[in-house]
Amino acid sequence: IIAAFQPKVLAGRRVLLTAGPTFEPIDPVRGITNLSSGKMGYAVARAAREAGAEVTLVSGPTALEIPYGVRRIDVQTAQQMHDAVMVNVAGQDLFVAVAAVADWRVANASGQKLKKNADDDTLHLEFAQNPDILAGVAALPQRPYCVGFAAESENLEQYGAAKRVKKNIPLLVGNIGHQTFGRDDNSLTLFDEQGHTSLPRADKQTLARQLVREIARRMAS
Ligand code: CTP
Ligand code: CA
Fold this sequence. Notes:
The chain has a single domain, classed as CoaB-like (Rossmann fold, 3-Layer(aba) Sandwich), CATH 3.40.50. Helix content is 26%, strand content 29%. It has five helices and twelve strands. Strand 11 (185-192) and strand 12 form a beta hairpin. The chain is globular, with a radius of gyration of 18 Å.
């Protein structure tokens, strides 16, 4: 009921999002991931659809159901997420990067399951840096309106403002990692060129609806 009565602030707009963690293989049965549940990204996807947008969600592995009316593309690695975004970005009006993307992948991943070795109880992994999906989209000549998310552990006000400028995006949404990962509620700080404002702690769907209105207002001006 509440969903159907959201103001249609994104009517006719096309929205692309990333959500969830990525999974970077070590071998065919193991890998490296992070504590992102995908709840915030899925809530934003749902809120964008409620607001009248046509929504494509590129999602890392999560336990969540596809939000009603949303087109979901499932990926595992950061590279796959990058490729899916780049294939789908043309014609989008808004890109919201909510995913917790692994900054590095295992460069010496094994094609076979690794076995314990009687003579050596260590394992050496090498890492290579993943592409920055948000920076890639923000650098496109015909770029959509770009919104980033940043999960910090401290100094949110300084890091958030600096990250927005470094990423060259109009809006960055900051939160504190250990106060959001896996939880149903969160609080957000919005950084734009005017400064920062806060959306106080609430459930993620409520915050996502507020965020969509904040984004739509900035896209219109
Ligand atoms: N992001 C991305 N691709 C990456 C890394 C990050 O698209 N390879 C996006 C995230 O989805 C998020 C934003 O960039 O919207 C900020 O992510 P964050 O990890 O906070 O920024 P980094 O530039 O990776 O900086 P840090 O060294 O603090 O991790
Ligand atoms: Ca990062």
